[in-house]
Design goal:
Elements lengths: L9 H37 L8 E17 L4 E16 L5 E3 L2 E7 L2 E8 L2 E3 L3 E12 L7 H10 L4 E4 L6 E5 L7
Antiparallel strand pairs: 1-2, 2-7, 3-6, 4-5, 5-7, 8-9
Membrane topology: Single-pass membrane protein
Keywords: Membrane, Transmembrane, Transmembrane helix
Subcellular location: Membrane
Length: 181
């Protein structure tokens, strides 16, 4: 004889309902757990693990050399000044990062006036590292912008480095800079 649903005893029906309810509760709990975990990951990504720009500070600048050069038949005077720089890089992030060898260009009013050679290195998480770099300034490139240069220096908009003569030592330095990644 075959049993149908109407012939089942009430206790068996009640057990099936309890099983269905348990599965529903379990499914809702799993979905809520996954959603909570997802929301938590999004919050952490936008707060704790948000990338922050490293801060840089010029620690030291020393004159390594001055190289004047005069070329003929068309009179051309070139003057290169080489500075050895020590730059402190502070990393506020919770992860360290590596940087490869690089070259930064120095511009004044849209015209390249120098370049910096950067050695590879690693900046620790929530730490700092001093990077040594060599800056070559093509001082002769400023000649065409001499009027603007004098105005900018008098208004205090340039990095101020006072170089002594004849010993060519950096006497004073005051710089404001920005890092754009």
């Amino acid at each position: 004889m075959m049993t149908t649903e109407s012939n089942q005893d009430p206790e068996s029906k009640q057990q099936q309902e309890i099983k269905k309810r348990r599965w529903r509760i379990l499914a809702v709990a799993v979905i809520l757990s996954v959603l909570t975990l997802l929301v938590l990951c999004v919050i952490l990504a936008f707060t704790v693990f948000k990338l922050k720009h490293p801060r840089t500070q010029l620690v030291s600048a020393t004159v390594d050399g001055v190289a004047p050069r005069v070329s003929f038949p068309a009179l051309k005077i070139e003057l290169n000044i080489t500075l050895d720089l020590e730059i402190l890089v502070e990393n506020p992030n919770r992860a360290s990062f590596k940087h490869g060898p690089g070259k930064s260009l120095v511009f004044y009013r849209g015209k390249q006036v120098g370049e910096v050679d950067l050695a590879p290195g690693r900046i620790p998480a929530r730490g700092s590292e001093t990077i040594r770099a060599r800056l070559t300034i093509e001082a002769d490139e400023f000649v065409s912008e001499l009027g603007n240069l004098i105005r900018d220096v008098s208004s205090g908009e340039l990095c101020q480095v006072a170089i002594g003569f004849p010993d060519l030592r950096v006497r004073r330095q005051e710089c404001r800079n920005k890092t754009k990644l």
